[in-house]
Predict the 3D structure of the following.
Amino acid sequence: MGIWELVVIFIVGLLVLGPERLPKAIRSGARWFKTIKQMANNVQAEINEELRVHELHQNLKKAEEQGFENLSPDLKRSVDELTEAAESVKNTYKKEVSKENNNDK
């Protein structure tokens, strides 16, 4: 939107709503705009994460088909990333189990 379009919208809003209600309407509109923008960003982040997971899954299938030998750099990186993620989950699980065992004593 250009500056002149905003000026026209402001003048129309001033005429329709009046000087008392216009600031409230602007704040309300800004809140709605911020909420919608946050929702759009969240959806975009979720879609990007799902695409990344899908790509990792496909790369893992390719690596399995090749027997994890002579992998391209992309496949090797994907396998390494998945291995690190699995180790992270395993370590977190071990810590939780050891905490539970210590609490039981």
